[in-house]
Each structure stands twice: as C-alpha cells, then as structure tokens.
Amino acid sequence: MQHRIIVLGAGYAGTVAAGRLAKRLHREDVHITVVNAEPDFVERVRMHQLATGQDLTPRPFAEIFAGTGVELRLARVTGVDADARTVAVTSADGTADTLRYDTLVYALGSGWTDHGVPGVAEHADEIASRPGALRLRERLAALTEGQPVVVVGGGLTGIEAATEIAEARPDLDVALVARDTLGDWLSDKGRAHLRKVCDRLGITVHEHTRVTAVEADRVLGDDGTVVPAAVTVWTTGFAVHPIARATTLETADDGRIVVDGTMRSVSHPDVYAVGDAALAMGPGDKPLRMSCASGGPMAWQAADAIAARLTGRKVPAVSIRYFNQCISLGRRDGLIQFVTADDRAVPRALTGRLAARYKEIICKGAAYSISHPVFTPVRRHRVVQDVDRTAETAVPAGSRAAA
C-alpha cells in the first residue's frame, strides 16, 4: 500500500517540499498530492512588479510537476482533522471532498491582515496575493498625473512597493508611512542608501506614524498626520491562514504551527509545517521570520526528514541561518543588507545597480528551485513499511542558507 503524502499549499515552501520528496522516494511506495487553489505558481516576491504593470513569466504546475508523479488537486482547503488524518477540500465547482493522509505537509502560508484598523478592508489594496496585485494594477493604471498613492508599512514589502510604484509612475505623488524610523533594522550604510533612493524617486516618507484609519481619499495617523490618497496600499505584515488554529495542532499565539528542528509538529508527528505557517526556531533561539528566505530551507529540511524517517535512514540535523536581506528599490537600484546568522544587520551592505542585479539573481534562483528542488543527482530510497517513525536518529548535515 502506498504511503499517502499530502502537501497543502503550493507556494515556495510547499512546491519545493513536494518536488524534493518526489526526488527522494520511490514512486511505487508513495503517492504525493499537492492541494492548491490556483493552477500556476505565484512568484510572491514579484507582486510589486505585477502591480506596476510588468508581466511575469507563467509557471503552470502542470509543467513544474511533469514527470515527477506528483498529483495536483485544484481545490481550496476548508479544514484539517489532525487526529483523524483527513483534509477537507472544496473544488472550484463547489464539490466538497475529504482526503486522507499518512503524512501531511502544511504549507498554506500567509496573507495580508488589516490589524483591525478601520477602513482598511474597505479602502486599501494589498499585494500579498496575485488577485490583490492585479486589482492594484488596474487602480494604478487608472490614476492620472499628480494623484497621490500612499503605501502603509515600512518593512521590506512596503519599501519595495513604494519604490517600484514611484519608479514606474514618476507622475504620481507617492508617500510611504512607517510606524518606526525608515529602515531602522538596517546598517547605517543601508539606511543612508534607502533614504537617498526615496529622495531621488520623490517619495515622501512619514516616520513614527501609526495609521489609525483609512478612508476613501486619505490615511489618518495617530500623530494627527493626514495623508491624501487616491490609492492606499496596505503592507503592514502578514497573518497566517486560520485553519491551523482551528485544529488540535499545537499553535503559537499568531496561529503558526509549532514545530521542532525537522519542521515536525510537536503535537502530531505525522504533520510537518513549512514556510510562513510554521513557528521554527533559528540561530540564537529566535523564530525564523516569515519570508521566502526561510521557506525554502524549511521545505528542504522537512522533505529530507520525512524521506529519512520513511526509509529508515538517519534524519539530517541542519541549522537554518541567514546571510543577507535582499531589497529591490525599483528595477535599477537595490540594497543587499548582509546580516548575522540570526538576521541582525552588520555594517556591510551592497547598493545600487549591482545590488539590483543581485536581487534579480536571487528571485530567479527561487523560481528555478521550485522546478529543481534537488540540485544534485540523488538516489530514490524505498519506504520501509514497518519503520518506527517516532524514533529520532539524526546526523549533522551542515547549515542551510536563508537570504
């Protein structure tokens, strides 16, 4: 009987995990199903480009999983019963079904959140999803010269959105509202370059301003700031998919599934969580941040651990660490902030056109990894039917990088 592996979600982490499992396990021994609502892979790190009118390379899952034996189930996940080992799904035509698994990889990721701020859901746009980016694309295209665009959120997503919009549409009046100092986590060199780029692109920056409300034509701050806005882009962080919190899986306060060093649920050994959906500890006993940079290494670790346990082999013990943060500042400028293993900025940073090219290489590499989840030839191992999957044996395997 084949071991049933279900992967929920086909973002960076879910797609890589499924492909890597297919490369490491005999097709006769396992049946791998990926459940995803869309038929194409979404390059989430490029949603700010899509929003400004750029066309992205189509990446259909039919091509990504061709010849791997991975089955794609186009459906929306509506529930998980971690005790009964079942997943409830609903297809686009409304057909409901229940899928049974032996091993579950939970990779439903995250989406935008309004943090309860009045008016955000009604008046703001988001770029955490392809539908959101396409809606914003239409709204930006309809704007005329001089109209104001406000990006709320001074993190990586907000910075990339504001600079991309300002570069693509220099005729618009772009503002960025940050709750803290702009780029406060960056090195001195990184902050200085970020300010220089914002000045060059004509972006008005409102620092130390917490947005208290979003209206149809303006954004209101707690310090009395009123910023006119024909379009408001909301980028103040992500919230994980709510399904996990509704299960018996152990979750953190923010809804992420608590996992061990192999991305295995601490409460349900048949469940693994990767990407934004998982709370995993990194160097310095700090949680890995929600990012593509964390999701890839987490997917490698989960897939390798599952394959090792199913085949009775030693489970690799790896350390996921960071090396840099890559920020695009439009198409012709960028910022590569080098960091410590636990993601703290160091003085060294790369800026300008070279940094933009560096970031583009990283983005292309991330897209390449979804179709090539294992970079070197590997041997597929047979599943050991009577293996004790709760036993823990591990062998050090070096460290894995997170950009």
UniProtKB/TrEMBL annotation:
InterPro entries in the cross-refs: FAD/NAD-bd_sf, FAD/NAD-binding_dom, NADH-Q_oxidoreductase
Pfam families: Pyr_redox_2
Main EC class the enzyme belongs to: oxidoreductase
SUPFAM superfamilies reported for this sequence: FAD/NAD(P)-binding domain
Keyword Kinase: no
Regions annotated as coiled coil: none
Membrane spanning residue stretches: none
UniProt similarity note: Belongs to the NADH dehydrogenase family.
Protein name: NAD(P)/FAD-dependent oxidoreductase
